[in-house]
Amino acid sequence: MTDPGPLTALVLAGSRREGDPMARAAELSHKALIPVGGLAMLERVVSALAAVPRVGRILVAIERPDIVAALPPMRVPVSAVKAEEGPSASVAAVLASVGAPLLVTTADHALLRPEWVQELLDADAGSADALLCLARRASVMAAAPDTVRTWLRFSDDAYSGCNLFLLRTPAAAGVVSLWKQLEADRKRPLALLGRLGYGYVLRYRFGWLSLRSALARLGRLCGARLEPVFLRDGEAAIDVDKPSDLALVRQLVAKRETEHPR
Fold first, then answer.
1. 262 within some domain
2. CATH code of residue 117
C-alpha cells in the first residue's frame, strides 16, 4: 500500500452572524474560546489533531486570525482561513482550495482524542469518497448515561453523529454541495423532504429505513460514495451545543485528567 502522505485537517470555528448564545453568556467572541479544563475548546481540538501522525497541517476557519495566531506552538503548522457563511460553505471553500483528502471537525468537539481520528483513518478501505463518524446509542449511553443527544433512529440501530469526517476524493465536493442545499432548506421542511424523497422520509419515520439505505440514497443525490465509521468510544458523539453539554464535557475532562494526569 502506498504512503497516503500528510493530511490537511480543517477545524470549523466560525461564529454565527447573529452571534452564539453560549459565547455571549461567557462574554467571549467565539464559542470555540470557552474554556474546558483550563484550555479553550479550540486549543484542545487543535492539540488532538496535531497529535495524529498523519496530520501535516491544520486550518482553522474563523473570522479572527489573531485567535489562531495566539495558540501555542504545535507539532504541525496551524493557520487561519476565512470562515464563510455557514459551516458547509467553509468546508466547500477549503476543499476547493486545498483539495482532497480533507479531514474535518468542529471547534466545539472539546473531547476529541487522537485515537478517534486514527480509528477513522484506519477504517479507510479506499472504497468511499467520504467517510463520516457515528457512535451507536449503546456506546454513547455507556460513556455518558445522562447525556441528551439527537439520535438518528434507523431500523438497525440508533446513532449520534461525531462531528468528524474524511473527505477522501474530489467527488466529496458533491457531499458538501448537498450539505449546503440541506442547510438552505432547514427552515423549509417541505423543500427539505422533497429533496430527500418523501418515500425515504416515510420509511425513516416508521422505522423501516436502514442506515446503509439512507447513505446509499444520499450518495445517489450527491454523486459520491458514503461510508459510516462507527467509533467505539461513545464520548466521541458528545460536543458542546448547549450549557448542559458544556457541564458534561467539563466533568468528563476532569475525570479523564484525574485518571491520566498530564
1. no
2. 3.90.550.10
Residue 2 within any structural domain of the chain: no
Task: Quickly list H helices, the chain.
Answer: 21-25, 41-50, 65-69, 87-98, 114-123, 137-143, 172-184, 189-196, 198-205, 211-222, 243-259
What predicted TM-score, i.e. pTM, was given to this entire model? Answer: 0.93
| Domain enclosing residue 109, as ranges | 7-254
Of the pLDDT bands very low, low, confident and very high (cuts 50, 70, 90), residue 20 is confident
Residue 28 lies in a domain: yes
Residue with cell 476532569: 254
- Within a domain: residue 1? no
Tens digits of residue pLDDT in 175-195 = 999 888 877 765 565 565 567
pLDDT tens digits for range 113-135:
999 999 999 999 999 999 999 99
Domain count along the chain: 1
Residue of 142, 166, 165, 162 whose CA lies nearest to 152:
162
Query: How far is CA 90 from each of CA 100, 176, 250, 256, rounded to the nearest angstrom?
Result: 14, 10, 28, 32
Share of the chain above pLDDT 70, in %: 94
Cis upstream peptide for 101 (omega within 30°): yes
